[in-house]
């Protein structure tokens, strides 16, 4: 295969961005669906697509620590929200859900058990 041209690059970029519908890709670049599929099946196209995906993953991995810090700050801010109880509850639910997944399946009486591991008791009505 010759060097990639602009259309080849556009097709590969679309696929790397997650667009998998060959008909849509073909429409966007002015090709037939079969031509797009044949191009993507070529070893050179597959290799370039792999390179694009690896580059995107590398860039994401470089940014991940900063993104995690921002996400945790946003979550903390949501937990501290006094004006929006729904936002606060949603943030708390997310934190507890994540804690449960990270904690695994600890037994309620084990040393690593947390409040998340305790059995849920039905609410009681204080005014019978």
Salient structural properties:
128 residues, 5 helices, 0% strand
Order of helices and strands: HHHHH
How many DSSP-defined strands?
Answer: 0
Q: Count of helical segments?
A: 5
Low-pLDDT residue intervals, each spanning 5 or more residues? none
Give a quick account of the main beta sheet: strands, pairing sense, barrel closure.
Answer: none
Structural class: mainly alpha
Q: What would the average pLDDT be, to the nearest integer?
A: 84
The value of Rg in angstroms is: 25 Å
For the termini, the CA-CA separation is 80 Å
How much of the sequence lies in strands comes to: under 5%
Number of domains: 1
Query: What general outline do the C-alpha atoms trace?
Result: elongated
What is the share of helical residues? 55-70%
Describe the fold and architecture.
This protein is mainly α. It has one domain. Helices cover 66% and strands 0% of the residues. The chain contains 5 helices and no strands. Helix 1 (6-16) packs across helix 4 (43-79), helix 2 (22-29) packs across helix 3 (33-41) and helix 4 crosses helix 5. The mean pLDDT is 84.
Task: Produce the secondary structure layout.
Elements: H1 6-16, H2 22-29, H3 33-41, H4 43-79, H5 85-103
């Amino acid at each position: 295969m010759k060097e990639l041209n602009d259309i080849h690059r556009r097709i590969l970029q679309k696929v790397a961005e997650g667009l998998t519908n060959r008909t849509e890709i073909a429409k966007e670049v002015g090709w037939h669906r079969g031509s797009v599929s044949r191009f993507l099946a070529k070893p050179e196209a597959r290799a370039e697509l792999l390179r694009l995906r690896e580059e995107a993953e590398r860039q994401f991995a470089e940014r991940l620590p900063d993104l995690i810090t921002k996400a945790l700050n946003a979550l903390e801010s949501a937990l501290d929200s006094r004006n929006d109880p729904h936002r606060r509850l949603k943030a708390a639910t997310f934190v507890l859900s994540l804690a449960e997944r990270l904690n695994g399946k600890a037994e309620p009486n084990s040393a690593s058990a947390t409040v998340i591991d305790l059995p849920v008791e039905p609410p009681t009505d204080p005014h019978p």
